[in-house]
Amino acid sequence: MILAPGSAAEVRRSTVAFYSAAGFTSVSDSVLNKGKRQITLVAENRDHSATQTNLMIGVTTR
Fold first, then answer.
1. What SS3 state is found at 58?
2. pLDDT at residue 12 above 90?
3. What does pTM read for this prediction?
4. What are phi and psi of 60, to 5 degrees?
5. Measured at the alpha carbon of residue 46, what is the angle toward residues 41 and 48, in degrees to the nearest 5?
6. Which conformational region is residue 11 in: left (phi greater than 0), alpha (psi within -120 to 50 degrees), or beta?
7. Which DSSP state fits 28?
8. Residue 7 to residues 34, 35, 50, 54, Cα–Cα distance (Å)
9. Pair 7, 52: CB distance under 8 Å
10. How far is residue 62's CA from residue 17's CA, in Å, rounded to a whole number?
């Protein structure tokens, strides 16, 4: 789990942009694919805070 500054929506958007720049393709707003790899993102505001977000990144093979 990663503690990131900003709202959950901002953190998810910036993480999707990071992985898209690395060649991953968005399947949905929180799932990206590249080759046989799939990344799933879960972002949740920490303790109902709009300034801190818990980010979890799951990586699997398809």
1. strand
2. yes
3. 0.90
4. -135, 170
5. 120
6. alpha
7. S
8. 26, 30, 5, 9
9. no
10. 22
> CA-CA distance, 38 to 35, in Å (whole number)?
8
Q: Report residue 7: phi and psi, to 5°.
A: -75, 165
Q: What is the rounded average pLDDT for all residues in the chain?
A: 96
Query: Residue 56 pairs with which residues in a beta bridge?
Result: 42
Q: How many Cβ atoms sit within 10 Å of the Cβ of residue 12?
A: 20
Q: Return the domain boundaries, the chain.
A: 2-61
Which residues have CB under 8 Å from 48's CB, separation 6+? none
Distance CA 8, CA 49 (A): 9
pLDDT, mean of residues 3-15: 96
